Structure formats: C-alpha cells, structure tokens
Amino acid sequence: MTSIEQINAIGTAGQPWGDAQKAQWRALQRVQRSHAKEVVSRIQALASRFEVVNYGELDCGEDGRYPLLALRSQDWDSALPVAVVTGGVHGYETSGVHGALQFAEQHGADYSGRLNLLLIPCVSPWGYERIQRWNAWTVDPNRSFTANSPAPEAAAVLALLQTLAEPVLVHIDLHETTDTDESEFRPALAARDGKPYEPGTIPDGFYLVGESDRPAPGFQQAIITAVEAITHIAPADEKGEIIGDKVVAHGVINYPGRSIGLCGGMTDAPFVTTTEVYPDSPKATPQQCNDAQVAAVRAALDYALANG
C-alpha cells in the first residue's frame, strides 16, 4: 500500500504528474502476491473443462511479462449466445478475480449447452500482484475500454471480444469498493491530475452499477436478491445516493459506462452489470465476498437465459 504521505511527496501539489513523477510512483509499488501461483495455476487446472485461451501478453518492462488468459467453453456452439464474465480489471479487487475462478470451478459446467462462456478472471495481472488500482503506467484500466486504449490490458480484452461471432447476451464485471479507495487511490488520482482531493464515502455493503442506456431493472434486482442471501446490501446515504449517484432501486445505481470507458460498457449485451463487493466490512469475510460474486454471476446468467 502506498501512503498518502508518499503520494504527496511526488511532484508539486496542484500540478499534474509528468513521466518522471509517474516513474517515481511506479518505483514505490512492490509485489505482494503471485499472479502465477494464485491465478495462472488455477486457470491451468481447469484446462480439462475449459479451453484456456492465451489472448496476449502484458509487457511491463523491468517488472516482467504476464500471460493474459481467459477460459472459454469447450463445447462452444455458434447457435448459442455468449456470457462474458470479467474480474480483476482493478488488480487490487481480490474477490473479482477469485470469484470468477470459483464460479468456473464450481458452476461452469452448469451452463454447458446453454451458453457459451467467456471468462476473463484477471484483466490486470500487474495490478493484481501489487494490489493496485492503476496499471504500471498510472492508467486506470476501468476508464480505458475505448478505441486506441491507453491501457494494454483493456486493449487486449477488446481485441479478444472482436473475435466473437456470436452476440453477447450478458456481461457481468466483478469489482470491489474498498477502504483504500479513500485512503490511497482517490488521493493518488487527485495528485496525479494536479487536482484537490475531495473526500468521499465508502458504502457498507454490496451494490450494483447498471448501464444507463440498458438499465434492465429486473435483471439487477434478481442479482441483488441472490446476493442478499450471502451478504448485506449497501443502503443509500442521507441523499438517497451511493458513491454520489442516485439509487434507482435497492442496491442499484446506473452509470453511462460506455461513454467513460468502463469495462461494463464494452459490449452490446442487453444484460450488463458491474458488481461492487465491500470486503472491509466487519460483517463480511473474504469467503463471503467470493461467494457473493459467484451468486451474482449465477443469478445474472440464469436471468439472462430466462428472459433473453
């Protein structure tokens, strides 16, 4: 974890970072866990049940190279629609990665012959190892799912999706909202951009971010109902908001994801959502967070199959 003091020591307050300051920030980041041991090994262990797709390589220079791996249904059927599950777009959001892997291990076979599954458990392996929101170049991958993306992790996912001939019926992107959003990541964003830091609040509980142009309220509520059996749902604040956006239903807000380059906006799927688990709650364990992600994926796929 990078402290606010370390962040504030980079560059000059009120001035955006240049290349030298970004390099200074990168030098502060330390490997804290292993992508190879914790992610790649679990993906490879599923090779008898899924096709393991190496859709690229992330070259981080002196920090090494990372394989970009996805899991694809072995019985892929061009007559069936596609379900996309993404995790680890922000590498520090642990349950997104391990929830996607747990879903593949425990429930992937349930959808054989019903959906073509494309699972991308860890979009940002450099960030996963360093428990970081940004990539190695101080770019937020989850603002970079755009043409000419500045984030190679995001560009590789977009290129993979271009290989699909079948329509995407449902896409669920697995995320977390953590206390470090306020203690590290939002202050770092303000410092990087030369702007004043404006404190926010962290909602206590699970919530969903739907797409403004495809809100699908029944779909969102089916997921909330499933997750509520696992962990608590974040309440609205005194303004009727979660993270500054109006709550449109129990545990649901909407964003214009495509226009701001969010992973959730990268397909034309009629059913799309982004999960936000809160792992720092005293009322939730790490396993509950993973289980909540799995419950969300299953509910999303089941609803899409029944209503698509």
Automatic annotation (TrEMBL):
Top-level lineage group: Bacteria
Residues covered by the Peptidase M14 domain: 32-308
InterPro entries in the cross-refs: Peptidase_M14
Any single biological process term in GO: proteolysis
GO molecular function, one term: zinc ion binding
Family: Belongs to the peptidase M14 family.
Protein name: Peptidase
Species of origin: Stenotrophomonas ginsengisoli
